Amino acid sequence: MHVLHNLQPRSRPRWDGNRVTFQLTDRDSCVDCAISRAALLDVAQRSYLPPDGWLACFLKSRDRIEAIALAKLLARPHHASGVLNIWSEDVDPWPPNMPAAASAAAMRQSA
User: Fold this and answer.
1) pTM
2) Which of 73, 83, 95, 107 could form a disulfide with 67 if both were Cys (CB 3.0 to 4.6 A apart)?
């Protein structure tokens, strides 16, 4: 089981041409994470982003993306290592009639 204490998930994201990479940082450890293009489009509810729009899109949706990453981290086996990847199938649609910010907050609370 993962024990997270002072989670500080605010690393500098990077676009590598295929995905946005970022880190979830606990006081003792750092978990490398990445979100695929398709997953980022799903989170942002977009079908297209210009080449220079990926990081801006990530930053707008960062709370929701980090909530998804945290949920995956807590669900994966303790001995697992390597990059925690977020794929399109990891992204749930927004609940009906719920604003994006409220939905992201609800996801963080349930994680």
Assistant:
1) 0.74
2) 107
What does each C-alpha distance from 111 to 10, 48, 50, 55 come to in angstroms?
Answer: 17, 29, 31, 24
Q: Which two tokens stand for residue 10?
A: 């605010």
What is the pLDDT confidence band of residue 106, given thresholds at 50, 70 and 90? low
The CATH-assigned architecture of domain 14-110 is: 2-Layer Sandwich (3.30)
Domain ranges of the chain: 14-110
Alpha helix (H) residue ranges in the chain:
37-44, 54-60, 62-75, 100-110
What gap in Å lies between CA 91 and CA 4, rounded to an integer?
Answer: 22
